[in-house]
Amino acid sequence: DAGVIQSPRHEVTEMGQEVTLRCKPISGHDYLFWYRQTMMRGLELLIYFNNNVPIDDSGMPEDRFSAKMPNASFSTLKIQPSEPRDSAVYFCASTPGGEVYTGELFFGEGSRLTVL
Amino acid sequence: GQNIDQPTEMTATEGAIVQINCTYQTSGFNGLFWYQQHAGEAPTFLSYNVLDGLEEKGRFSSFLSRSKGYSYLLLKELQMKDSASYLCAALDSNYQLIWGAGTKLIIKP
Known about the structure:
The complex is a heterodimer of chains A (116) and B (109). Chain A has 116 residues and is mainly β.
């Protein structure tokens, strides 16, 4: 079975540009998470979905960030406009589960974003 | 507030044993996870403890004491490929994962 698939793997853009990161979770997984990782702040949860519905977006830094999950096999994280401080590795993760999840997350390989 | 503490960095010798400690303070508790993350790669699941005691899985073991809010990851017969960051994460009462900053383990020959 394919794991969590993220694209692009690397993105270099200029400040003010729109960035769209994409994720395909593992088939059959009910939960999808977007994380951001930096040296300074470690792993930060941005938002997570259960059955395509956003459950907790309290980690989204500001209105410049938005995430969607139009169906069970696809999610996007958009940053508009991007700023240099958004430079980080963005991970998507999924996990099976019913009403709650067990915490064992399957991570994609990440999208490394550099905003100049 | 909720908090996870683990050492920033540890160094050990190939073939030796190392113990990485983690203390947690969370609103409720539904388990403790350890993940391994090699440089430039994604975290991968290592272990899950919800009951007190030691869980052994090959060269890796994980221990939990719920009363003390304490866990450790024990790595035996260290190999160079064990050089990585080890992330401790606790699942709180709302099933939110609270992550530690990670312990960078350096293995020397």
